[in-house]
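Re: beginner question about structure tokens

> Can someone show what the tokenized structure looks like for a real chain? I only ever see the sequence side.

Sure, here's an example I had lying around. Input first:
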Amino acid sequence: AKQFGELSMAYMDGDTVPFLWRYANRFVLFDHIFQSMVGPSTPGNLAIIAAQSGQTQAALHPDESYSGDGNKGAGEPVLNDSDPLWGSPQDPTTTGRQPVNPGDFPGYGVQLNQTYATLPLSLAGKDAEGETSGDRDAAGDLGDIKDDIAFLSHNGRDAVPWGWFEEGYDKEPTDSGADPTDANGLHASYITHHNGPQYFGYIANSPALSANLHGLGDFFDALGSGSLPAQGGVFFVKGGYKNIFGMSPADPDPAVQKNFLGDDDHPGYSDAQISEAMLAKAVNAIARSKYWGQCAIIITWDDSEGNYDHVPPPIRSYGPDKSVITDGPRVPLLVISPYARVHYIAHETGDHGSVVKFVDALFALTPLAQLPDEQKGRDIGKQKLGQSDWGPDDAITSGVGDLLSAFDPARLEGKAAPLPASYAIIPDEIVNVLPQTSGYGCKDIGVTPVDLAANLPNPIPSDFNPRPKTNPTPASK
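And the corresponding structure tokens:
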């Protein structure tokens, strides 16, 4: 318990994760972005495409509201890491079934079918009706968005391509006979509860929409071949329990070498340096591709992982148990783009809904909060629950920015040259060697942390252990 307490007060310094610090130094760091929902990973992965995690569904279907404190079982809004219904043992689907990590069951709970509007729906624009027409369970999936679909079909813009690229969703280089596998020998590195779109039946059961779900390797293949849509789009990239680059932690401890191969920056199985290396490889691949001149790369985290933070989050809504559910603690957010400001700290307040709001602005979409069915849910939340922000926060809700402050007006208007790709690229010889081995750190990126500059004391407890749950003995010095 003492080690966990010490860990909550620790932080990642620039010598531990210098690639992230390099991006923050060169481009834009937002310092007032908050976790949307007080909870673990799944709510953030829902909110980054829906600007909520089920408030309007709870309003339209009070019997689906979560019970207790929302930490277990199924219920709206989603506050826990229960797996999506689609792909689980409870999934009635017989064809086109979604994948699941073979180690999830027994063990994981199963969430309700999510039925509220998301970016995948609004990005469909005037093709919304066509893209959902093939839903294998239209009665169960489309009831809560039927007016949204009609509105978009008549008022929406041309469809905008999108994709969700997550490690392990399909066959990856990490899938081999040595890994735990399912019947098809796949998905050993897949973190099922991180795939936000998979929770929505109208995506999972609609071939036109589910075709946008891919494995992580497919993202790098698409960049290399230049096969992403020429008109642009919105693409989400996620790591997993392993890493497709064959990287191993710098720590030689056999337990660490075996158990910390993940690259999605989550504690308990991933390595922070492998995680930032995967990110750097993705940024490098984008910068070296034909897409650099039209890109905005948003880097954020789905939750805070329990680290201490001195900035209190804004309170926007309360759950059925009357506890605060939005917002949660701060999470980092970085923006990299040829049109970004440089060496800039943005103080704009927001949460995961800000990512949705940015996409709304960029592609001139009708915000989710202003679609007809979501407005119904928001109205019920206000009238019956007394909560004015009960629903998507990509519009109407105050204090949720759109991230546009990250961009330099002079570059956008052509008065200053866009930043060259070389400004974003971290050389391969640095990325491919973990900082703990190479020694690459703050000095190399020209950053001196405030506490070091002021020569402030920073004593490390003698029993400090960064992995108290998995390695219960203190880390060796």
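Each token stands for a local structural state, so reading them left to right follows the chain. The two ends are 20 Å apart (CA to CA).
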